[in-house]
Specification:
By secondary structure, the chain is an alpha/beta fold. 55% of the residues lie in helices and 13% in strands. Bound molecules: adenosine-5'-diphosphate, shikimate-3-phosphate and magnesium ion. Mg(2+) binds at residue 14.
């Protein structure tokens, strides 16, 4: 199986993805980590030195390489991954995609301490600005996220909840 996690920054894609891979006993990859490894520099450095367009090209390439390489995989994507370079089509065609739906106020709580590591959020320094920024970003991305066949909403999105969603989905296809 290939299971892909999509959703906003702070939704828990990386955290839950790692736990799901352990539970399913399949390899785990985090798309951002793979880009960092290939580029030998951090995500904020890539954005600052090369710009977002370059990052999106790397993201699209690394995604396709991982899919070609790994028939079994839990992949945590970046928040913007499904929205660029037809990446969502790749996800939908090659595996099962799960959208982690987390309300903006909860994202704000989780991200406030981490904004400096997330270049698209870095300009939003206080809670109100971050909330505005996330609300706008989510509005622009919602149409992509909603194409995922599976959706799990906080606070119930545990490994067990995902397993049940996946089992139910597999029983219907
Ligand atoms: N289910 C959860 N409940 C509360 N906090 C969480 C949960 N999942 C992740 N977090 C926290 O939220 C932050 C972002 O999580 P992360 O897995 O990096 O999200 P993403 O990869 O979607 O951006 C981290 O500080 C993490 O510890
Ligand atoms: O939302 C986005 O466009 C981004 C989210 C980040 O991943 P997380 O969703 O894991 O924070 C990372 O890919 C990059 O900073 C861009
Ligand atoms: Mg992540």
């Amino acid at each position: 199986m290939r299971l892909y996690l999509i959703g906003m920054p702070g939704a828990g894609k990386t955290t839950l993805g790692r736990a799901l891979a352990t539970a399913y006993e399949v390899p785990f990859r985090d798309l951002d980590d793979e880009i960092v490894r290939r580029e030998q520099r951090s995500i904020p450095e890539i954005f600052a030195q090369e710009g977002e367009e370059y990052f999106r090209e790397q993201e699209a390439e690394v995604l396709r390489e991982l899919v070609a390489e790994l028939p079994e995989l839990v992949l945590s994507t970046g928040g913007g991954t499904p929205c660029f370079h037809h990446n969502l089509d790749v996800l939908l065609e090659t595996g099962l995609t799960l959208y982690l739906a987390v309300p903006v106020p909860e994202l704000v709580r989780r991200l406030l301490q981490q904004a400096s590591q997330r270049p698209l959020l870095a300009p939003a320094l206080d809670a109100a600005a971050l909330e505005t920024r996330l609300t706008e970003t989510l509005a622009a991305r919602q149409g992509f996220y909603d194409r995922a066949p599976l959706c799990c909403a906080a606070p119930i999105c545990s490994v067990e909840a995902v397993r049940q969603l996946v089992d139910r989905y597999n029983a219907t296809v």
